[in-house]
Amino acid sequence: MTTSATPVRTPIRTRFAPSPTGFLHLGGARTALYSWAFARHFGGTFVLRIEDTDLERSTPEAVQAIIEGMEWLGLSHDEGPFYQMQRMDRYRELVGQMLGAGTAYHCYSSPDEVEAMRERMRAAGEKPRYDGTWRPEPGKTLPAIPEGRKPVVRFKNPLDGEVTWDDFVKGTITIGNKELDDLVIARPDGTPTYNFCVAVDDWDMQISHVLRGDDHVNNTPRQINILRAIGAPLPLYGHLPMILGADGQKMSKRKDAVNVMEYPAQGYLPEAILNYLARLGWSHGDDEVFSMEQVVAWFDGSHLSNSAAQFNIEKLNWLNNHYIKQADNARLAELAKPRMLAAGARFDGAPELPAVLALMKERANTVNELADAAMLFYRTPQPDAALLTQHLTDAVKPALAQFADRCKTVEWSKEALAAMIKEVLAANSLKMPQIAMPLRLIVTGQLQTPAIDAVLQLFGREAIVARLAKYL
Ligand code: GLU
User: Of 2, 35, 153, 202, which has the most beta carbons under 10 Å away?
Assistant: First the structure.
């Protein structure tokens, strides 16, 4: 099922808010793409926010990796990157205001005490939660403050009622306030906690639409309650279902290529990844191939799928092949060259790489496959002796000698070469493979190549004449 209508709030401001604890993963990239496309569609603003308050897990390398991934995909932000760690004063200011307004309170229960209350509730078959010991209520006397203990600050979550929002991916979601704890919003050292920072940031950054993974559905009612308590307008929320691995299970580093930057390393083009991710959880009729201009033109927040998408490498390969075929050959050459050099390619005096790639790209699923296939033009051929014996027979040799001779003078075009080969075949009563196979072996060292006339033409007269001379 897909959603049909998205309420639009203006101005449109979306954000991508990764936690820099690793690389940019596929699910994150899809969230970024949808947030970006949605903002672009409505002429809005796309904000990049780095949620780096988890000091133990956040690293500058991960920030870099995320920014690199976004750049590779071409998902440019209009504002930011904002770093939560640089906004601590603002969070503290708001915690102070909430304490003053009575929407938050100091809680002096020790971690052990909190654990003990949770244990008791679990034992009683209840959902474990903070029991409200330090929650001020009219007429209630609070316990004496334990000496020397630093308090946490808890949010005074409404006790009754429910939180409901019209999720523009999942439809209406309702969660009872009874399900929600009085969330700790500041630790004993005063540092604010995750949900609080997200809510404050979404307010300060005037986010109109929050698009994020559905692993955050449980956070949303907490954030909504905090936003209400601080008098902030609510953004609209859309929670995207996960991307499952090819096996239908949760994706994992171990078995899936979840790091976006593995894809360029494997020879995928960014436009293929973007197209693939756009379609993975969103649709526009039956279209499978679309440019980012089209995604921006069509992506209005409707037709988002509310069921999990399954990763399908065949489809990604098909798209990548499509975009390789469309890609400028000089660009492909730039991408293929490092891999070819590492494999020992020698480009001096060899055919132009863009022309070679143009000939070979039809069948390549990745730039790496293309680079590997193109190597046949850039290494010294070493035909297997047994294959030579099999294909370069005495019956074929005179014809090949004629061919080699005519190579010296024939017009060096694909057409002229093809015509000349036909003449040699006819004069010697041979069939195409009888001459094409040994030719391929001698010229390239392998039996499988693109059309022989095209291969010969690309190598050039000198190289062909020299290679043939070695065997005849
Ligand atoms: N930092 C969160 C994450 O990386 C995203 C938070 C959000 O989008 O609200 O999962």
Answer: 35
